[in-house]
User: Fold this.
Amino acid sequence: MSKKSWLIICSPDRLRVGSVEASGALEDIVFPAEQSAEALGELFTQKLREIGYREQSTIVAVDSHMCLAATMPHSGKRSARNHQSMSFALEEFLPLPAEEATCDFVVFNNDALGVAIEVNTVKPILDALEKAAVKISSITPLAVLTLQQLAPAENRRHKHIIAWEDNRQFEWFLLKEGQPALWKTFPATEDALTREIKMLHVGQPPADVDGITLVNPNDSIMFAAKEVAEEIPVTTRTENIQKITLTAASDILQGKKTQWIELCRDQLGEYDPYRALKSRFHLFAVAVICLFICMAAATWIRADRYADLANEYKKQQEVAFHDVFPEKRAPGRISVRLESELKKISGLTGATGAMPQLSSATLLLREVIAPLPQDMRYRIIEVDLSGDQVSINAEVRHYGDDDKLVRALRDAGFEVEPPSTEQIGSKGFSTVINATRISPEKTPKGKKAK
Assistant:
């Protein structure tokens, strides 16, 4: 099952939400004006869950009422690459300070179409969508998104007009080289349409515009357009605007197209494709911190346990010391005193010796395993450790391999008894090797106990 992608059409008082794979009507989420981002976030979370949204990739298409557009000249494409300077240059053509807007451009050789959006208008809605865990991949004007699917695929040598009605207003675009060079919106009336067409004759030679395409016009609109267009040919197209928009959104989310206008930048740039995962990153960070706290607590508890054991053993030593030397007070370091007494006794008897050392099973196991040969195949079934005594139950493939194990242990400083070996069918031989670790003082000269 493929993962869904979503389109959210953003207006000042409502959202229209739908999956780009669906062909049904978009769902409306109406919200009161001037509501806090927290309240909007709770509302969006509830409504989006009911619709079926599950934190999938989303394009936010901003309604034309929230956008401002202007065509502006520039000194060349090289200077047009400086987005900040272009933003301040656009300020001269729009009633909006550059500091309060986020904008993007479609750049041509000598001019550019700039589209801006007021940050304070759209940011509370985007903040609420973020609180609802919406994964916004792109923010773009709705009309420009629709145009990307409506515009002819091939580049045109001449300029071309394409227009359609949406929400009782005309979206009017002048295409140049297959991209929008001018964008206007005006009421969807015959008078407004004829006025714009007449402006084409006043502002530039008619031959510079090779045609006007009206999408889904009614008969009266079509008649009025042809009446004033004169030499400019007027054609019509019948399209499902909603389906066209959803297809464009799907193509962008799948990487088939790049949006002409991207407003997910500057002050709105925090809405990156991965910000919906921030809450999970926070949970992961909390989990890691909790893990370290648990590890520190476990270490502290273990250290405390070792301290208790040490105190218990010290008390046992003191009791044992009083049993041996009832008239003497237990010293601070009993082991040092016992070593001193042992040396006195050894001096009287002529014997030599040292305090018996505790044997570590882990260290002994390492001394047993480390010297075993690496260039032959064998299987260790069981290793039994008792003090300095070692019993190894192993399986070898060939007769005589048990002697290699014995020699390796002897070279490592073990006293090894002859192995007990028996054949186990055609699989090899089973052997039991008993060995004793030799203390350093008992090690023969020329050999070193490892």
Remarks:
- Confidence is low (pLDDT under 50) at residues 445-450.
- Residues 281-349 form one domain.
- The chain has three domains: 6-273, 281-349, 361-442.
- The longest helix spans residues 278-324.
